[in-house]
Prior knowledge:
This protein is mainly beta. It has two domains: 1-99, no CATH class; 106-348, no CATH class. It is built from four helices and 21 strands. It has helices at 260-264, 290-297, 342-348, 362-377, and strands at 2-5, 33-35, 59-61, 70-75, 92-93, 97-98, 101-111, 114-116, 126-127, 133-137, 153-157, 169-176, 183-189, 204-205, 225-230, 251-252, 268-271, 279-280, 306-312, 320-326, 333-341. The strands form five sheets. Strands 7, 16, 17, 18, 19, 20 and 21 form a seven-stranded mixed beta sheet that branches. A six-stranded antiparallel beta sheet has the order 8-15-11-12-13-10, with no helix packed on it. Strands 1, 4, 5 and 6 form a four-stranded antiparallel beta sheet that branches. It is elongated. The two termini are 26 Å apart. Residues 5-24 and 418-443 have low confidence and may be disordered.
Amino acid sequence: MRPVSARWGAALPYVANDNEVWADTSIPAGSWGLSAYSGGPFSESLEVRPSGDHTAVFYLKVPPRYGGDNWQIAVKKVDPKTNQEVADNVPSLSPVYTAWKRVFVERDRMFRRGGVLYAPDAQHMGIPAGISVLPVFKGPGGAQLDNLEVGDRIALFDKDRPFEGPHDEAYVGAIDRASDPDYALISLVTRRGGSEAYATRFSYTASPSNGATHFPDYSQGSSAAVGVVNSADGQIYDTASNQINGPGSAFYDADLRDVKQPFTDGYVEVLAPREGMGAVPYVPYSIDTAYRFAWLWFSNQNQTAYIHLLGGYDNPVNYGETLRFDNSQTPARPVRTTYVFEGKIEAAALPGSGACFAGNPVSLVNQAVIDHECAHQFDVNSLSSVGHCISDAWTGDGLCQMNQAACPSVTPRRLDADFDSPTSSHHGDVFDVRVCPEGLPHD
Length: 443
């Protein structure tokens, strides 16, 4: 008995191969095949003896990298006395099994307003309970990194005491931005417009200042922060987890509602469990901090087959930014975070903004950006211009979602099917899935 794929050609009634996995010689022996045990070992052929009820249980393991390959099990009867194949036996073939890959997404949402708490160094990261005045990072040259106002109701939280659990909430009674070049001081009060000081109930841990950049060093501490849950101007009032960028939302969210369409085409199932999903501090995007900030807040960073989607405020150039590997660390490490700059998308979608999709639904632009950036996570078009192409969608009714020749589409795009493309990707990690350009259905 042996597993057979489309590489076995005309011997099978079904000869299509929806992926070109066998062009990759890096798949080690024993990482796929058949076994009598769920944990292996696995090999290309397996001898089994039916039990008294004339049944046999065995396991098929497909290669660990690509989706879309088709498999059948070929069974031949063997004479138990001679261990030779029975003459003139007609081979039996199983139904066709198509290998799918499953990818999990942790979706974190950034506060629309707030600030990160200041610590001068690693020896003073602790913020004890019982205080009523908090230091908030300014930034390089004393730049204002927060967007707090007097009267805002704010939540205090950090990585280890998340917003979704027990935490402090109070109102901003006063803001002193002049006393220190490195931080502003906010005073906490018990009610909007009141003067009674609020004393925190819990302790928190800040990330210390990087003396060279004056940004927080997110490789240390727990990124203690404040986020606005109800703003003094009435613009923010909704912290519910079941709404996405709706009226009054306290968060910038990544909108996943279309992410299944393009990747289902490539035999990839995308799931977004609630485990690890949560709120992160408001921070303006900076390449000086983006990698370490993402690493700190990515709860599932050590899980396989996980990527990280992070709603954000703004970026000087792009509507989304995918970070796949951080070479600034020793040793270097995968990051697997995609920022989706909902704040920038919302501003550009306003009528008269001058952007090419001005006046179109923000949600559809957000979804299209996610579709595009998640394909970067799968390392498509790895040898071309930073993962982009000039192809049409495989359906023939629009552009490939990696095509940047036109305005970002408000209709979420699909992948292409340019099978003769020279941009084949062969270097491996768990997200290197053949969905574009060479791996879509072509049977």
